[in-house]
Amino acid sequence: MVQQYQSPVRVYKHPFELVMAAYARRFPKCPLIPVFVDSEIVSQSESDDGSLTVTERRCTIDVDAPRLLKRIAGVDYLYFIQKNTLNRRDRTLHIMVHNETFSNRVVVRECCSYTVHPENENWTCFEQTANLDIKSFFGFESTAEKIATKLYASSIKKGKEIIEHYLRQMEEEGVTYIPRWTPPADSCCVTARPQLPPPSSARGIPVNSTKDGLHSKDLTSPTELVVGTPDDKLDADYIRRYLGDLTPLQESCLIRLRQWLQETHKGKIPKDQHVLRFLKARDFNLDKAREFLCQSLTWRKQHQVDFLLDTWERPQLLLDYYTGGWHHHDRDGRPLYVLRLGQMDTKGLVRALGEEALLRQVLSINEEGLRRCEENTRVFGRPISCWMCLVDLEGLNMRHLWRPGVKALLRIIEVVEANYPETLGRLLILRAPRVFPVLWTLVSPLINENTRKKFLVYAGNDYQGPGGLVDYIDREIIPDFLGGNCMCDIPEGGTVPKSLYRTAEELESEENSFLTDSIYKSANIFKGAPYEVLIEITEASSVITWDFDVCKGDVIFNIYHSKWAPQPPKRDALGAHGIASLGAVNAQLIDRNWVLGQDYSRVEKALICREGESVQGSHITRWPGFYILQWRFHNSAACAASSLPRVDDVLASLQVSSHKCKIMYYTEVLASHDFRGSMTSLESCQSGFSQLSAATTSSSQSCASSTVSR
């Protein structure tokens, strides 16, 4: 298996020339890197004007590996070839490294670059990528991979420290300024820009100083500002400030998953904090985290969760009887949510509101928690990605174990676990009664093991002693009902009047509505059985709009018009397609006996839509009548040959049929006076992740055709 590494952008707040002088001091050997035994220059060449120097070194590495493994391999040291290309004119250094030892068994490739910061020409950026592919290693492939990964992670961590060490050393020596390279005076091809004078307190490196082949003229560069790294790259200081201290390999996983989303994900990209939560939930296993995240993003889009806080109005019953609310923050700055579960009439809320309303309530709490974490990160100046929950169980009894109520609780836990991982920092359960173990036995199997470790349970008044509540929240904000002096703005709760209960039929009709009540609908397209949607237009110049994602396979999208209402065939007629064994097959609206151009006509050019694409478009109708939106199976060899997985590849991997496509679509008909441009400008097109997104990926084309984004 190929192991990959991608560093964040590390910034040195020093000019490129100073950083290069510090970098040169690493050679031929560096005491700060014990495994770096020695290096020798194999070859070196320089351009006529001195702006470009290419240096090739042979580096000796002493790997910290078991002696038995070294004896089996028959080597004491490993040798690597390093090729450095220093461009003083462009102020860049590109480093390419590959292994010489065991090159037929192990492939190691590393690329590094030093460039000028895009926004400050007196700063320097560093980036690094690497690949490790162990094909065979005397039967110790797994051991060799672990040793190599550990060694590389250690060297990455020291890399910036070493450069900063030599920068401090140079400063102690009085070297704080090195002039940039300028073309030779006799050069007629290049016009030099005015040279900036050195600061009065600084002195340059002596003209006759050399270091490992880099002469004094090697340490200068022109004044042109290099186009820097793209805005979408992560800076190491940003990661530390907003995401926390991550190991180099964890940083790499975050960057690679983020890059993968940018390259393949349709719509807006989730914020880095959100992506990191899914990586943590899967122990930074990139493949598992990618699958986990894709499932959640599809769920959010399908059910418009991003708009929940702005569009959902809590029923008055929840405002009066739901005994929970936000209350300041804990000692670590995490938002604190207090829930008096023992005082809540869960049976009454379920009977009066249904499972659906409670689920929306819990989702809105989680969405609000995400917002509060971002706000506290800004307020406290450190990464805060989760919140703390305090659950008071005083009053909990067998009424709370009412089966429909427990069923609702289990479903809520399942949805939260699947879509809000690593958002709970700590959960304190206070005044747990004897009935609590029964409830815990029911719910604990649905809770992730890492989440269960964050639970602390206190019986009776144990929370008032050492190791209790005061260890986690300041005494000044302990709620009054727990013996503190802080008023907690949470409803008192109480018993929900039975007069507000709804009938079983009403509750049954709304059960699971959150899973089906979506502006988007899902449809399967089979080979030989297209999926069709009938739209009746009574007024010419109406606008048919559509927005769909191709989740699996490739499809052909068509729009047809007919003066007559199509008659769906009977179910037994579907046997003519030869796929009756597949179960529920799409009913065909276009009769097989209809003739294109006579009975019906195509009003838009057929559009081939590839797997992973998001398509939005509109059509202004010319005549009243019946319009048919049709998605047909498209067999594309090009798609099958693609080696790069897309977001929905992960979701579709469980689908084994190669003759089946899947789409998620939304259609709407607008009057001509309500139409304000292309589909991408319509307010009704809600296909983004607005709350969890920091940047938008979009593409549009005008009006009567579709827009496609990957």
UniProtKB/TrEMBL annotation:
Residues in PRELI/MSF1 domain copies: 2-175
Ranges of residues in domain GOLD: 516-669
Signal peptide feature range: none
Transmembrane parts of this sequence: none
Molecular function as annotated in GO: RIG-I binding
Family annotation (Gene3D superfamilies): CRAL-TRIO lipid binding domain, GOLD domain
Domain CRAL-TRIO: 314-490
InterPro entries: CRAL-TRIO_dom, CRAL-TRIO_dom_sf, CRAL/TRIO_N_dom, CRAL/TRIO_N_dom_sf, GOLD_dom, GOLD_dom_sf, PRELI/MSF1_dom, SEC14/CRAL-TRIO_domain
GO cellular component, one term: cytosol
GO biological process, any: negative regulation of RIG-I signaling pathway
Protein name: SEC14-like lipid binding 1
Origin species: Kryptolebias marmoratus
